[in-house]
Design brief:
With about 290 residues, this protein is α/β, with parallel strands linked by helices. The protein is built from nine helices and eight strands. α5 links the parallel β3 and β4.
């Protein structure tokens, strides 16, 4: 935690403009067509908790960022069951916490944070939201904007927001690449979290992984100097790819010699603890934006 202590510095912005739209949390987005042909093998749902694979409504590989509508994506929208409690949270809290995807809003940080929050952190693919809610409770002076397309995950995080009385979380139920491209201005984020993105184990699917050079360059450009990108994975080959890609980005510098210790703010999930008991590893990577 001491490594990151210097990163938690004040950032102020102009007063916010209205963005919230009732019912946005219930929007449905089409399933992207597979470039593999007709491979429809079942995929795991986006985690029973944050440590399980985040669906990353957000997690587009973004290999062709200028023509993203044709780009390979690293997520698929899934028709997971939304519980009654999640549906109630979507209906009651969605109008206050779920934001519209609107390319006309070119500076989401200013629009949301205004002068109310010192910093803004983007959470990409928050799964069922436990880690997001945990970190938001620890850092009430920071605004967390989460990107997630999986409706049960959005509902689960909204339920936690209500139970814990969190005011510093907003959700965009849309692809994070497009949110970064069109709604986040350069050098306005204090940090970004990408926890346990889908590793796409099969070699022919590696192109679908989120952490690729074009995406990292886009994300790094949206981080303010001195801000950070924190990734975590439990799949060693993906950890190695993450380290290689992040280290090659000239806008970033590593805070450790290789992998970082788990920062105290990131909770150890039940899924993670189970993996560690079985001898599985978990790798954290924390890089900062150079001045």
């Amino acid at each position: 935690m001491s490594t990151l202590a210097g990163l938690i510095e004040g950032m102020t912005f102009p007063l916010p403009s209205p963005l919230l739209q009732a019912g946005e949390g219930a929007r449905n987005f089409p399933l992207p067509q597979s470039d593999e042909g007709a491979e429809n093998s079942p995929l795991p749902l986006a985690g029973e908790e944050q440590g399980e694979r985040a669906s990353g409504a957000s997690q587009s590989a973004g290999l062709n960022l200028e023509t993203h509508h044709r780009a390979i994506r690293s997520f698929v929208t899934r028709a997971g069951r939304t519980t009654a409690a999640q549906a109630r949270a979507l209906a009651e809290l969605g109008p206050c916490h779920v934001l519209s995807y609107d390319p006309a809003t070119t500076d989401l940080v200013v629009a949301c944070a205004g002068q109310a929050y010192q910093q803004t952190v983007l959470e990409i693919g928050f799964g069922m939201g436990q880690a997001t809610a945990h970190i938001a409770a620890l850092r009430p002076g920071t605004l967390f904007i989460g990107c997630e397309v999986h409706e049960p995950g959005v509902g689960a995080l909204l339920k936690l927001i209500g139970e814990q009385g969190l005011d510093n979380v907003r959700i965009v139920r849309h692809d994070a690449v497009e949110v970064l491209q069109h709604m986040i201005a350069p050098a306005t984020l204090h940090g970004a979290h990408v926890f346990f993105p889908d590793p796409w184990h099969k070699k022919r699917h590696h192109k679908r992984r989120l952490i690729q050079p074009p995406f990292v360059h886009l994300l790094a450009g949206r981080i303010a100097p001195g801000g950070y990108i924190h990734c975590a994975t439990d799949w060693q080959p993906y950890a190695e790819q993450m380290l290689s890609v992040l280290a090659a980005e000239p806008l970033l510098t590593n805070t450790a010699e290789g992998y970082a210790s788990r920062p105290a703010y990131r909770p150890e999930t039940k899924f993670e603890r189970r993996g560690l008991r079985l001898g599985h590893g978990v790798w954290d990577l924390v890089f900062t934006r150079v001045p």
